[in-house]
């Protein structure tokens, strides 16, 4: 039996610094938010064997510390800052400094005990960064193509040159993504497994590998909630509110939506499910969301069991 006291660590992240609070006591550390500072943080925390290390999502500034801590097998979790702020207000804590915030995060960790989930590995971080850039390039391409119909004679050539450059950049990004997946045995195996499903192509598979590391490691309810396709109740007394979906990872959800657009045509399971929902009077949006949920649950089970798609 482990006799060590539970230690919940809260880390407030800024561009330059990491403010660290150990539980509700007075212990408070500061480290620079760079490679050297993160190494020092890992060394200081290792002998303490903390129960949970909690960081707020801070626009990516938390990634370096979180990844290093995860690689050191530390129980690190990144939480939504809105949840922490709401917790602070509920506790009557309205003052805000970096040190106070770190203590609030530690208290939040102890009170709420957020689940520690698998962190992205470095290869997944690379994939995620390139996938984000790919989406930006696709959006710019769409914008420029839409401008072609309204631009004057003298602006058309400039737009054409920009479109050509963006198409070249998109091709380069696709090649980089494919190379990263090909060079990592685990990513390669998982991507191939996912692509065995009709409707799931290389972009969808790469997105799931890079931006949903929990795939295959959590249950069906949790994976649906992570993507943001789990219906949430809004009931009070005798009132039964509409079930709605919200939250989750928007980038993964939008990619999954594109997969379902293909799957309702070419995947017999998803097509049958979609047609049945529409026949029962469901709106297209509701049916599409239900198909997204069904597809991600199927993919989660496949990744868990390491079994390719089969339809009987």
Question: Layout of SSEs?
Answer:
Elements: E1 8-13, E2 17-22, E3 28-32, H1 35-45, E4 52-56, H2 63-71, E5 76-79, H3 81-90, H4 98-112, H5 122-147, H6 153-183, H7 185-194, H8 202-211, H9 220-227, E6 235-236, E7 239-240, H10 250-266, H11 268-279, H12 284-305
Parallel strand pairs: 1-4, 4-5
Antiparallel strand pairs: 1-2, 2-3, 6-7
Helix pairs in contact: 1-2, 5-6, 5-8, 6-7, 7-8, 8-10, 9-12, 10-11, 10-12, 11-12
Structure description:
- The strands form 2 sheets. The protein has a 5-stranded mixed sheet with strand order 3-2-1-4-5.
- The protein starts with 7 loop residues before the first strand and ends in a 7-residue tail after the last helix.
- It is an alpha/beta fold and 312 residues long.
- Helix 2 (63-71) links the parallel strand 4 (52-56) and strand 5.
- The chain has 2 domains: 8-112, Nucleotidyltransferase, domain 5 (2-Layer Sandwich); 122-305, no CATH class.
- The protein has helices at residues 35-45, 63-71, 81-90, 98-112, 122-147, 153-183, 185-194, 202-211, 220-227, 250-266, 268-279, 284-305; strands at residues 8-13, 17-22, 28-32, 52-56, 76-79, 235-236, 239-240.
- The protein is globular.
- 58% of the residues lie in helices and 10% in strands.
- Helix 5 packs across helix 8 and helix 6 crosses helix 7.
- The mean pLDDT is 89.
- The chain has 12 helices and 7 strands.
